[in-house]
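Troubleshooting log. The previous run stalled partway through. Resubmitting the same two chains, unchanged.
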Amino acid sequence: MKYILLMLGTKAGVQGYHTWPKQEIDAHMAILQRINKDLTASGEFVATQGLADPHEAKVVRGEKNGVPVTDGIFPESKEFLLGYWIVDVASAERAYAIAAQISSAAGPGGRPTNMPIEVRQFVSHERKAQ
Amino acid sequence: MKYILMMTGKKSDFEGYAKWSKEDLQANVTFMRAFSKELKDSGVFVSTEGLGWPSEAKLVRAGKNGEPITDGVFPESKEFLAGYWIIDVESAEQAYRVAARASQAPGPGGKPGNMPIEVRPVLSGHADLGL
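Second attempt completed without errors. Output:
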């Protein structure tokens, strides 16, 4: 079963991340790299992607006179997608365990970030075909 | 440059969608299939996925010993990702044009839904993540 693990954060959270010392960012990334390697080795890895900074985000709603209507103003509380992992696992519990590994990656001072990771199922192709 | 186009909605939006008539749903699905085909034919398509319903969503945090602590309660205002497309285009403007087209997918009564589509650049390369 395929699941997507979504890492979400507010603009304030992203700004906080940018203030981490370089060695803490490197240590954090090293843990994420190891998780990716482990998932690749176990055959559960499907894809991962990081998204650019929220200040580059736009919302598009239809078009006016053939030009897309864009807006770049978001409420402070808006959760932005920061990145995701897609995994193909045997059970929801396994997806939750991987999400917990990501959540426990070290942050400032080497402490786990305990960042919430949203776990969602994909619509299966059988359901799509209906 | 790669961009992700995201459709999001609150639980109430998903519940509203579930109440659309069969004809309206069919028209929307037909549009989405034609849209994906257009993206493929024009060579900008990278991937697309639809996500399961918010009622199946869980928020996971690591517990003291790294064990998963799951929570399935979300605020009413929470925006859930419903699905996305990743496209590879020449410019942000081209990504916005594609998003505008997706936004005009037919809604109830066949009228353009004008659904908001969030457009974000994705980070290039996976070197950072050791892949």
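Takeaways: Chain A touches chain B through 56 residues (CB under 8 Å). The longest strand of chain A covers residues 80-88.
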